[in-house]
Amino acid sequence: MSEAHELTMLEQAAAVRRGEISPVELAEHYLRRIERLDGDVGAYMTVTPERALDDARRGERRLAGGGATPPLLGVPLPVKDLDPVPGVRYTAGSAVFADLVAPPEAATHMVELLERAGTVLLGKTNTPEFGLPAYTESRVGPPARTPYDPALGAGGSSGGAAAAVAAGLAPAAPGSDGGGSIRIPASCCGIVGLKPSRGRISPAPQGDVSGLATAGPLARTVRDAAALLDVMAGPVPGDPIPVPAPETAFLTWCDRPPGRLRIARWARPEVPGVTVEPEVLAAYEKTSSLLAELGHEVIDAEQPLRPHDRDAFTPVWAVLSAMAPVPPEREEELMPLTRWLREQGRTATGLDYARALAAMQQVGRRLAAAVAPYDAVLTPTLARLPQPVGALRDDDDPAADFEAQIAFTPFTGPWNIAGLPALSLPLGWTAHGLPVGMMLGAPHGAEGPLLALAAQLEEAAPWASRRPKVW
Predict the structure, then answer these.
(1) Are strands 172-177 and 120-125 parallel, antiparallel or unpaired?
(2) Taking a C-beta distance cutoff of 8 angstroms, is the pair 447, 420 a contact?
(3) 404-454 pLDDT, tens per residue?
(4) 3-state DSSP assignment of residue 361
């Protein structure tokens, strides 16, 4: 058998069920790799070896007992440090909460679903403060770096999760995405990252009145991402936008030919002054050609959004940042970008916020209407290649920092505004071996057909054999 970390998540689950590797052996393998390699990529905020081995032993007892087993029994997975796990350190990426341990009542529905699936908790993955920026740099943990070149950032805010998966420090990982935070690091780290439809994964018991953020899977393969989505998806009574569980498992969709699809494409950002790097455009054209070779109708479409359409996003994001319960006397310990956003959020009135939400909904409808005539939409995931650690961050000028992030990620945020599913696939690679993600979006609720298309692309242009510098 290959080394354990070279197996996909689904292959690991199957090997555990067949008795080829025990949950304890698998957990110990990953813990050794994390100890040896995580200093190079900064994937983890907190590692939980004792909890991991306890979970693994529990999985072994369940295997020995016979009977039906959950789908990911014995598979080690981390959790992003924006999701509390009772009894485990929970920083939310902030020095203010560096010593906080999540209380017993803090469990989220998504974490409970991972536990029911039989997974083993490796630890908490690195995230920037409150998940706000598109890079993963903070005052409480190391910067998260892409394993393909550790001088470059892993993106954010699920940068630690993506770095862990890409470097073989976890077989897959849940992340969260409020403006691109799954797809951005997936592109930087050369893996699959899926932001589901609004309501597909319950945020319970937490809430996001903006509807921007959702959890979603990061994985090395499309099938692993689909299988993890199957575990994470499902409504909870009281969800504001419940999406019923699908009749067909998302993993099953990966084995279905997608048929001939109508796929729109655009690569022009609506943000004034933002351009796309030539190597990104080259990957976009190559992906367009591949789609046509696979028999799909690829249609050039106009960018449906207008300059300044996303202006309403910023005040909403600022209000969300201000909701973090930071003691007033500790406000100065926050990152400059966080303080800048929170200052704006605190000055917004209820009427200001309601108007920003209404404006954002109008923009979301405009994008949804443009997507509706098509089976999928192709754009680049990012406008630029992975950036050096610190290149986007500007502590002296948070406004310039925020503008740099938008210029880096102009394609991702609108899909959060509209609540539509979108995923990043590592379909492009530079001459120096850096990954270039391509983003595919679809109408609301169409994750299944989107995964069928993604699986077809993975088979036609496989990336599984690529290995980063840190592996």
Answers:
(1) unpaired
(2) no
(3) 999 999 999 999 999 999 999 999 999 999 999 999 999 999 999 999 999
(4) helix
Please give the structure tokens belonging to residue 59: 């999985």
The fraction of the chain above a pLDDT of 90, given in percent, is: 97
pTM over 0.70: yes
**Any idea what the CATH number is for the domain that residue 339 is in?**
3.90.1300.10
Sign for the pseudo-dihedral over CA of 439, 442, 448, 453: negative
Q: Which domain does 173 fall in, by range?
A: 4-460
Residue 285 lies in a domain: yes
For 2, half-sphere exposure in the C-beta direction (CA atoms, 13 angstrom radius) is 8
Residue 469 is assigned to a structural domain of this protein? no
Q: Quick check: is 187 catalytic?
A: no
| Whether residue 213 has pLDDT greater than 90 | yes
**Would residue 157 show up in a list of annotated catalytic residues for this protein?**
yes
Residue 131 has phi, psi (to 5 degrees) of: 70, 25
Catalytic residue among 138, 157, 187, 321: 157
Alpha helix locations (H) across 294-397?
A: 313-322, 336-347, 350-371
How many domains are there within the chain? 1
The verdict on whether 80 is a catalytic residue reads yes
Upper half-sphere CA count for residue 398 (Cβ side, 13 Å): 15
User: In sequence order, what are the beta bridge partners of 101?
Assistant: 89
Is residue 416 within 8 Å of residue 360, measured between CB atoms? Answer: no
Q: Cα 401 vs. chain centroid, distance in angstroms? A: 21
pLDDT band at 1 (very low <50, low <70, confident <90, very high): low
Contact 187, 167 (CB under 8 A): no
The pLDDT assigned to 129 comes to: 98
| Whether 414 contacts 303, CB under 8 Å | no
Identify whether 381 is part of a domain.
Answer: yes
The answer on pLDDT for 293 being more than 90 is yes
Asked, for residue 293, whether it belongs to a domain, the answer is yes
Locate tokens 């921007």: which residue?
Answer: 212
Distance CA 144, CA 158 (A): 9
CA gap 133, 7 in Å, rounded: 32
Residue 443: φ, ψ to 5°? -60, 165
State the Cα–Cα distance between residues 105 and 255, nearest whole angstrom. Answer: 39
Residues 138, 176, 181, 424: which is the catalytic one?
181
